[in-house]
Amino acid sequence: MLIGKKYFCLILDTQRFFIELAYDGTAYHGWQVQPNAVTVQQELDRALSVFFRQPVETLGCGRTDAGVHATQFFAHADLAGISEERAVSAVSNINALLPYQIAVSRIFKVHENAHARFDATARSYEYHFHFRKDPFSLGRSWLYKGVLDIEAMNVAAAQLMQYTDFSSFSKSNTSTATNNCKITAASFRETENGLVFCITADRFLRNMVRAIVGTLVMVGRHEIGASELEEIIRSKNRSNAGQSVPACGLYLVRIVYPYVD
User: Fold this and answer.
1) Which residue in the list 24, 45, 65, 119 is annotated as catalytic?
2) Residue 3 located in a structural domain
3) Are 91 and 53 found together in one domain?
4) pTM check: above 0.90
5) How many domains does the chain have?
6) Annotated binding site, which residues?
7) pLDDT tens-place string over residues 116-170
8) What are the transmembrane regions (predicted)?
9) Binding site for substrate: which residues?
10) Final residue before a domain boundary, out of 109, 142, 167
11) What is the CATH number of the domain that holds 74?
């Protein structure tokens, strides 16, 4: 028995922070950590852990697939014994530890129950096409060789907002509590060398945007009409929809939170 010694247990204050970042997903197997593959989350967790000298595990606003990009992405992490000032000012140091394809734009304190995934009220994606060979679009846009009826595609895209169950555009092996999503915007706009599809919803199912775009391309080729698109949606059967377009053209571009400017 030891006498005359005092033992102290240091309890460090833990605070929750949001990390806003962007990434080129070409070289990564998506966002989420997985065995035997390099992911964006793995690289971010490593950089945060090294700089703050403690194990850090982030939780992201979603799960982008391999090859998918993000111009805006949020993750949250709990840091022990780290002041708000130190965390906020750590952006350049964290970026120095990250690969060039991943960039943190800001770190900011949030309330202790803030959740990067469940608190998001809207998400927006873009899908990029280009029609002429362009080395600067390689890996960042889909080179489409053909003619598309963009007006017909926009008519069909507008019909998406009339439905909520998008089982027809979800990977069949995905198990979720519900396949209901509320789409608030969906349209194509032409660019100098291509096309961009923009879509906003409260949530998205796995592979949903790429499957929707693949089906709308069928409309643009006049392989199906707008009425047949509605039949596909009502069937709730993935095999009735079009093929998923390549990941290289897909970008997560905006996440909305009620408490983030």
Assistant:
1) 65
2) no
3) yes
4) yes
5) 2
6) 125
7) 999 999 999 999 999 999 999 999 999 999 999 999 999 999 999 999 999 999 9
8) none
9) 125
10) 109
11) 3.30.70.580
